[in-house]
Amino acid sequence: MGQKIIRFSDLTGKHAENDGDLVRIVVRQHPDLEDDPVEIEALAGELTAVKQLALDVVTIELHHPDADQPETVVMEAEAFNRLASAAPMAEVLRGAKRVTRSIPSQAVAPAGARERVNYASLEHAGRPHKGRTTDAEKQLVQQHLEEINERLADEGIRTIDLGNAEHVARYGLEALAQERGATIA
Fold first, then answer.
1. Which of 45, 69, 129, 155 has CA atoms 20 to 30 A from the CA of 165?
2. pLDDT tens for each residue of 126-160
């Protein structure tokens, strides 16, 4: 027995004739967003005005000497550029010191201070972890297996193998493994 998945735009509810018609949208910040970023899909034609409506913004961090954490501010690029009075902002930025990105080590943070990882997000789904695999994580892995495996490989983490019985069971990939003719060991 086969399965057919019918996909719709999250914005308008219109049917997507094929997966190539859909654009994945990750919403990172929104006044109604409660926690981590979320993912929605829309038909490409529904997004034609997005670039025209987009604002030129700058995201900056203010590191005050008396604060433990930086303050993040998002503002229009034009307003930010007006702050530079000695030289044009482009010149100021070209001559500025580069910031090296560092990944905070979890080993350094005390156990109680560690942030909980949301494995039901596309950013973390499929990573090896102890505990129960939620239905939301399973669904993400089932729908985005190639993308997740590509991310895991880029991070140097084991990928999800449709031939691995433990992986198939953990993420509910039985139908996908059968569909792709994988031999489960």
1. 155
2. 988 887 888 888 999 999 999 999 998 888 889 99
